[in-house]
Amino acid sequence: MPHSTATHSTATPDLFTPLRLGAIELPNRVVMAPMTRSRAGDGNCPTALTAEYYAQRASAGLIITEATQVCDTAQGYPNTPGIHTDAQTLAWRAVADAVHTAGGRIVTQLWHVGRISHPRFQPNGAAPVAPSAIAAKGQLYTGAGMEPFPVPRALETAEIPALVRHFADAAKRAVFDAGLDGVEIHAANGYLIDQFLRDGTNTRTDQYGGTVENRCRFLLEILEATAHAVGADRIGVRLSPTGVFNDMKDSNPLPHFLAITEALNPFNLAYLHVIEGKPGHHMAPPEGAPHVASTLRAAYKGPFILNGGYSSGDAVAALANGEADAVSFGEAFISNPDLPVRFRAGASLAEPDRTTYYGGDAKGYTDYPALESVAA
Predict the structure, then answer these.
(1) Distance, CA of 36 to CA of 190 (rounded, Å)
(2) Structural domain containing residue 192
């Protein structure tokens, strides 16, 4: 099936075939997936170390940053960055400048965590907000240790337009003030937008609940507002249709997410980014759940990015088979800052130190050597 904006060539694409995603030209199809690293500084601002970390990875076809709060109620983990204050925006400008100087392209992932939070992260110690007052099972790390997820407060219908505006305002800050190349709307992994999308977390009876059309209304309103703010060709969306992370479930994900995907087509977005893990990957569909990525790929008319435990060989096969236009890689980019260079050279990959994923300093963040340094 043709995807007219996805390639410049009729030849079978590989990882190093250029790709256009809306307004963004990529020299390769090795995308850096968004990964929370919990290293923001005072005021939840990115730091000089953040800029160094992303600039080291500028050989990626596209960098998608860690998820970034759109407002002061959006935070759910310690030391995650925001882009809703002037100081945060200025700090992201330094990150964008560093990546662009190194020859890269970078978009920021915009999120609101919804119920995956705690009063410790909320203004005045308030309860987190969500579509419905349903607590997630399990615990989260608050900085004071592991604590149970609290019961969230169900959003009033009248509160939702302000949240939509927060996403649009954050997008404007990202593109026009910080100079990032675009934004990705985080509608996956059990955070606020995903909580609206799925009937396991959305039991509303207003225009944002019940039917699939109503449950995807929040996402579509965000896309309308952000497209008006920065242009649809600088916006991507991330979905995790069968993901169970953060205690998520949906009674009928295949037709539901097919309808959501079809609703995205009129926007002419830069891309759709779908998480569906390979067998054995932690984001693989649970036993008995349908595999939906291929159906969404067939329905979506724009560039399509896959994520979920792909090796370079898996990614090459996915591109050759038309399963995706690009593949995003997470953990491999942590310990291999020059991942596309290593893929092209057929070099072995360094293993990441998982004890350094969240928080801390340069160790496990900016101290992984590039291939040239390893060979020296």
Answers:
(1) 14
(2) 19-375
